[in-house]
Design a protein that fits this description.
The protein is of the alpha+beta class. It has three domains: about 55 residues, Roll (Structural Genomics Hypothetical 15.5 Kd Protein In mrcA-pckA Intergenic Region, Chain A); about 100 residues, 2-Layer Sandwich (Alpha-Beta Plaits); about 80 residues, Alpha-Beta Plaits (2-Layer Sandwich), CATH 3.30.70. The protein has six helices and 15 strands. Strands 5, 6, 7, 8, 11, 12, 13, 14 and 15 form a nine-stranded mixed sheet that branches. The longest helix has 12 residues. The chain starts with a helix and ends with a helix.
């Protein structure tokens, strides 16, 4: 890559401005001042400095929404060679990874990115990002069990945060419910439903904050819209 192109790509300035910086002797490659325009560098091997400060290749941030199917592991790699969500997202040059997890038997909205700060904000309970699920439960919970679910349950060594729980429909002795949580511990919803004696039959996440799954087909993905990205950036800015 040409040196001035690299500088511009890293946000040092416009291509023309970067050429000016090179001519002024403000850029070093591997400790040597370079004034030659068009000087070729290898961003992965060469050390580049501008005004005595090292600079690195700017990594384009990628934000993707996947409608995860049942039967996929939410990891980059799996030691048991099971199918992972990475096999569903193709033709992406950047190294992305899932934000949080959906377990093997859970489907629905999964965000993927290479933005570590955003990942932290969306997965840490202190940011209170809502995650909405639709689930079929075995049996129909009583009002007392629903209230217990809403107020927080002791699961293993922790007590869950207050949770929204609404019965949407009843069919053949089972209940379709909407559940909204503000944290995302391992298999949390399944464990909470087990706790009140109504195991999950099926579970689907349909919303994270203001990001909606919508009508995206199962197994398909898309880039987030500018509105969605700006919403996520507003969460990062609160950090």
């Amino acid at each position: 890559m040409r040196l001035q192109k690299f500088l511009a790509y890293c946000g040092i300035g416009s291509r023309r401005k970067c050429e000016q910086y090179i001519k002024e002797g403000k850029v070093k490659v591997n400790g040597q001042i370079i004034k030659q325009l068009g000087f070729k560098i290898d961003p992965e091997k060469d050390n580049i400095e501008f005004n005595h400060s090292p600079i690195q290749m700017y990594e384009k941030k990628v934000y993707i929404l996947l409608n995860k199917p049942v039967g996929y592991i939410t990891t980059v790699k799996d030691q048991f060679h099971r199918k992972t969500v990475m096999t569903l997202v193709n033709n992406i040059n950047e190294r992305i990874y899932p934000i949080g997890r959906l377990d093997y038997n859970t489907e629905g909205l999964l965000l993927m990115t290479n933005d570590g700060t955003l990942t932290y904000c969306l997965t840490h309970p202190k940011y209170e990002i809502e995650k909405e699920y639709i689930a079929w439960l075995k049996g129909i919970p009583s009002k007392e069990k629903i209230n217990a679910f809403k107020n927080g349950l002791k699961i293993e060594d922790y007590i869950t945060f207050p949770t929204d729980f609404t019965i949407l429909k009843k069919n053949r002795g089972n209940a379709l419910v909407k559940i909204i949580i503000h944290e995302g511990r391992n298999r949390q919803i399944r464990k909470m439903c087990d706790k009140i004696g109504h195991p999950v039959i099926s579970l689907k996440r349909i919303r994270i904050g203001k990001i909606l799954l919508g009508d995206l087909p199962t197994g398909k993905w898309r880039y987030l819209t500018n509105i969605e990205k700006n919403y996520l950036l507003s969460i990062k800015n609160k950090k």
